[in-house]
């Protein structure tokens, strides 16, 4: 019974794939569309845009606003796909992802997908400035005013000791997919600290909230824009200032993180055939405050991403009107 | 054991006491450690040669995907068919509408075991709607059905072959071991390379995990069919095929149904991880809850998974056992009539009720749960931190210091000695080979870190499991209360309870241990309980009639006699704990788990992640071989 | 005593079965004469059946008796090659079994030889009727026909009304009746029994033995019956082959085995058998003393000693033992009592017909 059913499915698949000519999987293949009957693949004719959803709320906020406008103003269907960054990039090649709405650097991926494979390109800045840095809870900065200078960190190393840090101070890092120079920084700045890998964003968030609530010392890797700043007061620790090229050799970095211009990445095919949808994505640009407002609604005010986006869109007519294609 | 003979003939002083050899070996190892510590420790290097080699292989696949015939005519078709199959299931399930599907579940429940299960089916699936996750649940169900169908289509024939031929079984066993222990994360990215993003690759990832158990149990079932029945069939002139079809398969039916049941459970436990490559369904709610650090957001999806697991588990188990309890369950045409009536009622309701689950009926448990969790997070913090610190200072840190500062050859010698003593020469050599493999792959330091957490987690699991298992064996009431909790602990995606654990224990190895213990304790409790209950009543009666107290009965009779079951529990505890190594990597345990997570997240670290996945397998086989002496089953056992 | 070639139902000659590596090498070398433990130590092989030769007459009840490990179960499995023999000849109803192709062999098993097993070997997922019809089913007999036939057989073995039960709803004795019915249903010429009753309670075992005797009488099939129970062997067997370490050490009627054990092993075996229950008057009758009166009661020579007791005790004169019209000898009270008290020994009896 089951075997017969399988045989039926195989036959069906063969028929769909055009009778065994070999199924090529690339951005233009019909096979891709056949494999995704729910309608992915080619953007313009079907009016479907595949937006990757990377796992942080700020990203979700940006994606929600773009999706809202694509759906309600331009009449597209939007497919959201929950993916980690790395996987989302791979999706450009297989035709399953059209847009990444907020990209943090990833120069290695840009090299691979822009230059080597030629399947993706940048669609310009989102207007958001990404700043990675080291943070302590505000109460620590109040209590030990000189702690925000890295030179004094060794003085306070004892405060940051934990069961994981092997007698040194602890510097808590997050998800392994994040861009980080922390190991090199600790070494090159001769800090008496150990980088402890939290392993996920959740590990950072829970630690930061507890550090404020319980008045526990914590030094950790974090970034802005992020909704956490609306919930927990944080102070940034000043590392030696960033100068262009000071982070060229990852092993010798001894300066702070540079300001990242967050950008949108689209597949080549979407850029070529995406029409108005592509125009909108390209034109999109807003501020960190805009994103934080939407993200905060999603995260802390119990709204769904769709509702939060709708709220922002209704309140900011002028901004998004400018993004619509003429 | 020539010593035993010697005692009979000569006074005891002539031969060395039993403990002398282990103690002597221990002293030598200790001396070696004290003099050599800190040397030959093989520190970790992110760019070890094996990691880079794997990266190159990945790049080759990446650039040949569209030219190589293997892909053009093989993998790409598999991808298309799987996508089609999933879409078919999804379409059918949604076409039923929620009242229709609830009705079908009720009908199936009735067929499987009467009105109790019918109620469970209806109530359970209606609960998915009430939790507000109906659509995600249906997608998850479609994904589980797709992967289980394919897993069985491939797994059952293989299992039958393995059951009839020891050669096939021996060839399959190591492959199945790898499929089961290899962390899914390690091959999730290649999965995307081969099968793209979405249902197809999610199906493959799920079925890789679900298939081994189906094969193993089927093989076991076919193998265990009474040889007399097979001989009787042959003596009447049946062909091999007739004997298979009319004797072996029907007689193995109940156990094969268990294989299906277990495949479904395994598939459900992959829901969350598969969501990382955009598998449709409940998993994505949980992933999103994780990035928002919001338990209330992910809990409905978590509960939905538990509910679905319990409903499907009870239904398939009851269907398997129906034959045995044929008299109890309704039979004959009436049976089908009632089932049909339930299903038709659902279908009719589907036309009357809205297709979407009504919003008004949804119970929003998110916000209150979040508040409760927040309260617990803030008020228990001091206690939990103290527990964590004591465990880390007394247990984790000293052990990890020893393991990471010991020269590799000394660890190897210790493992060899221990495995030899516990399990004999062959397993000892396998264990040694695995350990050396870890060293060669450049994973030594991280393996030792992971080994530390695994050892501590196994110890805690065993202590807790023994305690609860003994309590359950001594009190039926306690056992009845405990069982559903154990079921939930095993099926609830660990990420859901990891968030509060993160808040309470911080991003530490302790949190990882906490997660492993919750996951690994249920099977240990069950094995211990069954083991103690399995002690022959005659023996218990004899002990009682000799005037034993309850305590004496436990310590002198029940525990020693349940030794086999308890050792199997230990073995299982280890395998289950290893399954959580990767989750541990996400909450601060570092080690191999973090390497695997990194490999999944960063392009340039893929090699390290994959190799660390292999390392986890090696570590698992090593621990299994060391402990298997007690239990001859050499491979990860099925749950249940 | 030996039946003629043509009339033999089963004929076995020089049969060997050696388990273990390089069985052929053992068979063709001098090692095959080693005793079992020596053979195992030296070659790792076990000779389960060693150079066994016997014939079974059509319609005969032939019993093979031996302790566990004596090779009797292997021997019976060799007959239809459920266990492949290492060497020797087997013919059943004139057909050379060892030369048969797999298809011929299946034909043989389907239509001519069937078997009853110690642990029943029933199929728990099938109703009793379908268990009984199983042999017909694999022959391709249509459902209606095979059920009709199975129903007849069920009433023959006394299981009327149990057709729709499942095996695990029956007692052990009834289950074995199902096993018996399954073997009978294919209407074989030869039935093989592998210790069929050793897993049953003593009382049920006795019933079943009686049942087999009755069936043997009614259906008249050739039967080869394996047992480790001497009293069962004596009760059922027309002839008994006693096996030890794979070889037949004695082959004869129950009376011969008990009355004239071939060696100390067999003697030891039958030591506790009450001779008076097995031996006939023929075995103890003697020439009358010159002064004895020959007007006592008359009993046939085949009368079992035990059964002669009332006649002897009821009469002061010796009993005349007659074989038809011929006087075989006389037996008096003292002879009977001493026969009942005497232990058997390996000797050739003086009186043999």
From TrEMBL, chain A:
GO terms for cellular component: ATP-binding cassette (ABC) transporter complex. Keywords: Signal. InterPro entries: ABC_Gly_betaine_transp_sub-bd. GO terms for molecular function: transmembrane transporter activity. Residues 48-314 form the ABC-type glycine betaine transport system substrate-binding domain. Residues 1-22 form the signal peptide. This is Glycine betaine/proline transport system substrate-binding protein. It comes from Nonomuraea dietziae.
TrEMBL record, chain B:
GO terms for cellular component: ATP-binding cassette (ABC) transporter complex. SUPFAM superfamilies: MetI-like. It is a multi-pass membrane protein. Residues 137-316, 447-627 form the ABC transmembrane type-1 domain. It is found in: Cell membrane; Membrane. Pfam families: BPD_transp_1. GO terms for molecular function: amine transmembrane transporter activity; carnitine transmembrane transporter activity. GO terms for biological process: choline transport; glycine betaine transport. The chain crosses the membrane at residues 19-36, 85-110, 117-134, 140-160, 181-198, 255-277, 297-315, 336-357, 428-444, 450-473, 494-522, 567-594, 606-623. It comes from the Bacteria. InterPro entries: MetI-like, MetI-like_sf. Keywords: Cell membrane, Membrane, Transmembrane, Transmembrane helix, Transport. PROSITE patterns: ABC_TM1. Belongs to the binding-protein-dependent transport system permease family. This is Glycine betaine/proline transport system permease protein. It comes from Nonomuraea dietziae. The lineage of its organism: Bacteria, Bacillati, Actinomycetota, Actinomycetes, Streptosporangiales.
UniProtKB/TrEMBL annotation, chain C:
The keyword Iron does not apply. Residues 34-270 form the ABC transporter domain. Signal peptide: none annotated. InterPro entries: AAA+_ATPase, ABC_osmolyte_uptake_ATP-bind, ABC_transporter-like_ATP-bd, ABC_transporter-like_CS, Gly-betaine_transp_ATP-bd, P-loop_NTPase. Transmembrane segments: none annotated. Keywords: ATP-binding, CBS domain, Nucleotide-binding, Transport. Coiled coil: none annotated. GO terms for cellular component: membrane. Gene3D superfamilies: P-loop containing nucleotide triphosphate hydrolases. One of its GO terms (molecular function) is ATP hydrolysis activity. Pfam families: ABC_tran (PF00005). GO terms for biological process: glycine betaine transport; response to osmotic stress. The keyword Nucleotide-binding applies. Belongs to the ABC transporter superfamily. This is Glycine betaine/proline transport system ATP-binding protein. It comes from Nonomuraea dietziae.
């Amino acid at each position: 019974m089951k075997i017969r059913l399988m045989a039926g499915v195989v036959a069906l698949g063969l028929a769909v794939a055009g009778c065994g000519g070999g199924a090529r999987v690339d951005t233009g293949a019909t096979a891709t569309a056949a494999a995704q009957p729910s309608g992915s693949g080619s953007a313009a004719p079907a009016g479907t845009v595949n937006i990757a959803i990377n796992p942080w709320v700020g990203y979700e906020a940006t994606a929600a606003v773009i999706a809202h406008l694509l759906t309600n103003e331009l009449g597209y269907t939007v497919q959201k796909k929950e993916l980690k960054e790395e996987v989302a990039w791979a999706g450009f090649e297989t035709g399953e992802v059209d847009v990444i709405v907020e990209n943090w650097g990833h120069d290695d991926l840009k090299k691979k997908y822009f230059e080597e494979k030629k399947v993706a390109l940048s669609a310009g800045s989102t207007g958001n400035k990404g700043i990675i840095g080291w943070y302590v809870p505000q109460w620590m900065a109040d209590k030990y005013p000189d702690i925000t200078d890295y030179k004094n960190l060794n003085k306070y190393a004892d405060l940051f000791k934990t069961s994981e840090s092997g007698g040194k101070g602890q510097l808590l890092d997050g998800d392994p997919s994040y861009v980080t120079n922390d190991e090199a920084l600790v070494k090159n700045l001769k800090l008496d600290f150990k980088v402890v890998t939290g392993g996920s964003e959740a590990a950072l968030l829970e630690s930061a909230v507890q550090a404020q609530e319980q008045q526990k010392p914590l030094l950790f890797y974090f970034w802005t824009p992020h909704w956490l700043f609306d919930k927990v007061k944080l102070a940034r620790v000043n590392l030696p200032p960033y100068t262009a090229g000071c982070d060229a050799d990852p092993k010798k970095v001894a300066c702070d993180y540079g300001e990242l211009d967050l950008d949108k990445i689209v597949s080549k095919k979407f850029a070529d055939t995406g029409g108005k949808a592509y125009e909108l994505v390209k034109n999109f640009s807003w501020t960190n405050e805009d994103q934080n407002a939407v993200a905060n609604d999603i995260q802390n005010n119990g709204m769904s991403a769709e509702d939060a986006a709708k709220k922002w869109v209704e309140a900011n007519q002028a901004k998004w009107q400018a993004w619509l294609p003429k | 054991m020539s010593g035993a003979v010697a005692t009979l003939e000569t006074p005891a002083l002539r031969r060395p006491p039993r403990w002398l050899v282990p103690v002597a070996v221990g002293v030598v190892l200790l001396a070696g450690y004290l003099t050599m510590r800190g040397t030959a420790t093989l520190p970790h290097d992110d760019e070890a040669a094996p990691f880079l080699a794997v990266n190159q292989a990945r790049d080759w696949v990446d650039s040949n995907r569209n030219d190589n015939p293997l892909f053009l005519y093989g993998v790409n078709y598999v991808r298309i068919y799987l996508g089609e199959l999933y879409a078919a299931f999804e379409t059918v399930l949604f076409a039923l509408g929620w009242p229709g599907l609830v009705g079908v579940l009720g009908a199936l429940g009735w067929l499987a075991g009467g009105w109790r299960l019918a109620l469970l089916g209806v109530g359970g699936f209606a609960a998915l709607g009430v939790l507000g996750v109906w659509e995600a649940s249906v997608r998850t169900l479609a994904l589980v059905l797709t992967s289980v169908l394919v897993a069985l289509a491939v797994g059952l024939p293989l299992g039958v072959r393995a059951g009839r031929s020891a050669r096939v079984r021996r060839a399959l066993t190591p492959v199945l071991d790898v499929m089961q222990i290899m962390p899914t994360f390690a091959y999730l990215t290649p999965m995307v390379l081969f099968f793209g993003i979405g249902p197809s690759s999610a199906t493959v990832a799920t079925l890789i995990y679900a298939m081994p158990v189906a094969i193993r149990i089927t093989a076991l079932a076919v193998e265990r069919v009474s040889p007399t029945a097979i001989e009787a069939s042959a003596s009447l002139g049946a062909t091999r095929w007739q004997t298979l079809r009319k004797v072996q398969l029907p007689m193995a039916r109940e156990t094969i149904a268990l294989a299906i049941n277990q495949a479904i459970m395994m598939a459900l436990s992959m829901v969350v991880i598969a969501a990382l490559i955009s598998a449709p369904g409940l998993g994505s709610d949980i992933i999103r809850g994780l990035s928002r650090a919001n338990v209330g957001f992910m809990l409905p999806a978590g509960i939905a998974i538990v509910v679905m697991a319990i409903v499907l588990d009870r239904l398939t188990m009851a269907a398997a056992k129906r034959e045995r309890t044929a008299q109890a369950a309704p039979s004959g045409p009436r049976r089908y009539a009632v089932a049909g009536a339930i299903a038709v009622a659902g279908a009719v309701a589907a036309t009357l009720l809205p297709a979407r689950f009504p919003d008004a009926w949804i119970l929003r448990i998110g916000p209150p749960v979040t508040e409760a969790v927040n309260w617990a997070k803030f008020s228990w913090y001091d206690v939990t931190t103290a527990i964590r610190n004591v465990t880390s200072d007394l247990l984790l840190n000293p052990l990890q210091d020893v393991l990471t500062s010991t020269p590799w050859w000394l660890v190897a010698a210790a493992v060899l000695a221990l495995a030899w003593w516990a399990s004999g020469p062959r397993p000892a050599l396998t264990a040694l080979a695995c350990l050396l493999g870890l060293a060669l792959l450049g994973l030594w330091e991280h393996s030792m870190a992971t080994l530390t957490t695994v050892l501590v987690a196994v110890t805690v699991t065993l202590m807790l499991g023994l305690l609860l298992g003994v309590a359950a064996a001594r009190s039926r009431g306690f056992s009845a209360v405990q069982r559903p909790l154990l079921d939930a602990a095993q099926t609830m995606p660990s990420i859901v309870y990891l968030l509060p654990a993160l808040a309470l224990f911080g991003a530490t190895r302790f949190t990882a241990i906490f997660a492993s213990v919750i996951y690994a304790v249920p099977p240990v409790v069950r094995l211990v309980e069954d083991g103690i209950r399995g002690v022959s009543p005659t023996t218990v009666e004899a002990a009682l009639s000799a005037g034993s107290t309850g305590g004496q009965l436990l310590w002198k009779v029940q525990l020693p006699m349940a030794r086999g079951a308890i050792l199997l529990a230990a073995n299982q505890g280890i395998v289950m704990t290893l399954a959580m190594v990767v989750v541990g990597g996400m909450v601060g345990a570092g080690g191999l788990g973090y390497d695997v997570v990194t490999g999944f997240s960063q392009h340039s670290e893929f090699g390290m992640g994959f190799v660390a996945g292999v390392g986890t397998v090696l570590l698992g086989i090593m621990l299994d071989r060391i402990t298997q002496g007690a239990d001859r089953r050499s491979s990860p056992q099925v749950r249940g | 005593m030996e039946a003629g070639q043509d009339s033999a139902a089963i004929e076995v000659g020089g049969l060997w079965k050696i388990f273990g590596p390089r069985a052929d090498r053992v068979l063709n070398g001098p090692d095959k004469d080693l005793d079992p433990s020596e053979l195992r130590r030296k070659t790792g092989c076990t000779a389960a059946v060693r150079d066994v030769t016997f014939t079974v007459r059509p319609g005969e009840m032939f019993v093979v008796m031996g302790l566990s490990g004596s090779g009797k179960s292997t021997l019976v499995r060799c007959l239809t090659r459920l266990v492949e023999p290492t060497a020797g000849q087997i013919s059943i109803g004139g057909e050379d079994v060892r030369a048969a192709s797999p298809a011929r062999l299946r034909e043989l098993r389907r239509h001519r030889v069937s078997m009853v097993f110690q642990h029943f070997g029933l199929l728990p997922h099938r109703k009793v009727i379908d268990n009984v019809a199983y042999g017909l089913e694999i022959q391709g007999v249509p459902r209606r026909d095979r059920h009709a036939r199975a129903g007849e057989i069920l009433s023959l073995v006394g299981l009327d009304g149990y057709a729709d039960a499942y095996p695990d709803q029956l007692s052990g004795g009834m289950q074995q009746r199902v096993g018996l019915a399954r073997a009978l249903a294919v209407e074989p010429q030869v039935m093989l029994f592998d210790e069929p009753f050793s897993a049953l309670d003593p009382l049920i075992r006795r019933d079943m033995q009686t049942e087999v005797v009755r069936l043997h009488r009614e259906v008249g099939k050739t039967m080869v019956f394996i047992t480790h129970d001497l009293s069962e062997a004596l009760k059922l067997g027309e002839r008994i082959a006693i096996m030890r370490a794979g070889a037949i050490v004695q082959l004869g009627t129950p009376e011969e085995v008990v009355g004239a054990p071939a060696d100390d092993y067999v003697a030891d075996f039958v030591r506790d058998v009450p001779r008076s229950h097995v031996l006939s008057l023929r075995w103890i009758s003697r020439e009358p003393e010159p002064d004895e009166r020959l007007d006592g009661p008359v009993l046939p020579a085949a009368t079992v000693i035990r059964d002669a007791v009332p006649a002897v005790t009821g009469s002061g004169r010796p009993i005349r033992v007659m074989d038809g019209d011929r006087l075989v000898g006389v037996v008096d009270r003292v002879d009977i009592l001493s026969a009942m008290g005497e232990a058997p020994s390996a000797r050739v009896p003086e009186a043999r017909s």
